UniProtKB/TrEMBL annotation:
Class in the EC hierarchy, top level: hydrolase
GO molecular function: 7S RNA binding; GTP binding; GTPase activity
Assembly and interaction partners: Part of the signal recognition particle protein translocation system, which is composed of SRP and FtsY.
Gene that encodes the chain: ffh
Protein name per the record: Signal recognition particle protein
The organism of origin for this protein: Trichloromonas acetexigens
Entry EC no(s): 3.6.5.4
GO biological process: SRP-dependent cotranslational protein targeting to membrane
Main location: cytoplasm
Domain SRP54-type proteins GTP-binding: 269-282
Membrane-spanning intervals of the chain: none
Transport keyword on record: no
Length: 296
């Protein structure tokens, strides 16, 4: 995970440590390299610019240069700023407040890992003592409903019995009534994905949002697609006002461009990350731990 970044930061920091005393020029040189590394990692251009500026402001301060371990201080500044970039200190917990059943809506492009994430989330919620109902609301992709039903069977978590000829909004509304009657406290809505964002897809998602008033509207985005994932997040956010992002396939992402840009570009936090194909490979996202991990 994000191994390229770790390797490159490591080599920049080795050089810094090698200097002993640091001059402002040493720091500027390191920051030039940090900038390149982040751009190579496919981090959004403006995000890189702001990040480097923030580090520069703190790192060329006299306190850092005069300290006994200036290189360590600079590294700490980079770590802090990386954490901040990814939302450290902000509340990124899922919100289940309000009268049950609470709806959690997952949306995203086809192949991003939406259906898998619905299953993973259901398992996680059950472990947290909630009682989730999976709701297949993708009536376009053949087998999408069956795929979620299979996931549900595998996890022994109930799946609402949608049919492909139903309207997705009607499915979600009927599932909510079913949940009310049967004591399920959380609806996990697996909405339709498309290969590309289009007006029909968005219109449908907006209708589901208006009807179900989900507490969480989470974009499922594939980390391996870098800036594309960031652009997708920005478009979905514009139409739906996302509450957060589930960033999938982080296990296979060596570069980290999406992980480092999504929050800064959209203002919406990464709440959960997918770290593998298995159903238990979903974790709460901790920006501080991720920053620590990137810096090795
Ligand atoms: P959907 O079209 O968005 O519903 O995507 P799927 O849930 O069908 O997932 C597409 C593929 O991505 C499947 O092969 C999943 O196993 C895989 N996948 C989903 N999440 C992850 C993840 O976090 N890591 C890895 N390595 N694969 C994932």
């Amino acid at each position: 995970m994000l191994d390229n970044l770790t390797e490159k930061f490591d080599s920049i920091f080795k050089k810094l440590r090698g200097h002993g005393r640091l001059t402002e020029e040493n720091i500027k040189e390191a920051l030039r390299e940090v900038r390149l590394v982040l751009l190579e990692a496919d981090v959004n251009f403006k995000v890189v610019k702001d990040f480097v500026e923030a580090v520069r402001e703190r790192a060329v301060g006299q306190d850092v240069l005069k300290s006994l371990t200036p290189a360590q201080q600079v590294i700490k500044v980079v770590r802090d700023e990386l954490g901040r970039l990814m939302g450290e200190g902000e509340d990124n917990r899922l919100d289940f407040g309000g009268r049950p059943p609470v709806a959690v809506m997952l949306c995203g492009l086809q192949g991003a890992g939406k259906t898998t994430s619905c299953g993973k989330l259901a398992l996680k919620l059950r472990r947290d003592k909630r009682n989730p109902l999976l709701v297949p609301a993708d009536v376009y992709r053949p087998a999408a409903i069956d795929q979620l039903k299979t996931v549900g069977r595998q996890l022994d978590i109930p799946v609402y019995d949608s049919q492909p000829d139903q309207d997705p909004v009607a499915i979600c509304e009927a599932a909510r009534r079913f949940a009310e009657l049967n004591g399920y406290d959380t609806l996990i809505l697996d909405t339709a994905g498309r290969l590309h964002i289009d007006a029909t897809l968005m219109g449908e998602l907006v209708r589901i949002k208006e009807s179900l008033a989900p507490k969480e509207i989470l974009l499922v985005a594939d980390a391996m697609t870098g800036q594309d994932a960031v652009n997708v997040a920005a478009s979905f956010d514009e139409q739906l006002s996302l509450t957060g992002v589930i960033l999938t396939k982080l296990d296979g992402d060596a570069r980290g461009g999406a992980a480092l840009s999504i929050r800064a570009v959209t203002g919406k936090p990464i709440k959960l990350v997918g770290l593998g194909e298995k159903m238990d490979a979903l974790e709460v996202f901790h920006p501080d731990r991720m920053a620590q991990r990137i810096l090795g």
